[in-house]
Amino acid sequence: MNLNSIPIQEISTCAILVPLVLAAFKLKTGDSKIRLFFLFLLFGALVDGYGWFVYSTDQNPVSHSILQYCYLFFEAIFFVWLCTEFLNYSKAKVLRRVFYVLLFSTFLFKGWVLYSNNWDPSLASETNSFLDGVFLISISFLSAFALLHMAEREYDLLQFPWFWILSGMFFYCFGTFFIDIMVQSGLFISLYKLRNYVNIIQYGFFTVGIMKFNRVKKI
């Protein structure tokens, strides 16, 4: 089979539906974390679906760029909140506020840059890539910190649902960070395709984590 014939972009877009459907079945028995995680997945699926519609029908992409910007901002705030929920650290709330301020400032600047370039990310690719890098490396650090604290408290990490979900977040943010910072290099086009594989693997982590909820009594 020719690997180039595999519709990896479409698979990456649709892969979110697997953890989304599984998370929907956990809403009645789960706590606020799983409900917000479901909203995060639902928001992402709607943005991806709308983007697919916009570009396949040659619609004006501005509306999708604005919606994607709002989603990324929600994603950043949610990731910070979720990671700090698992910190065994006396000043976890202070650390949460610091990251809130950092990412809120970053996304305000990102919004201004996109607005100044008619919401076309390609017109401000270098600056936009740097700002996305701030978000990705921040969440990479915070999720890794949370995983370390989680390891100190959990005896069987592989059976703990949020270990898999936070690992998926770390893998995606850390993996795509190095891809995005090469936006100005000649390797970017070929490396950018790797984002689809990273994205699929992330949803694989999410799926495993959600399936683990059946095996624990308390989250």
Automatic annotation (TrEMBL):
The chain crosses the membrane at residues 6-25, 37-54, 66-87, 94-113, 133-151, 163-191, 197-214. Keywords: Membrane, Transmembrane, Transmembrane helix. It comes from the Bacteria. This is YhhN-like protein. It comes from Algoriphagus aquimarinus.
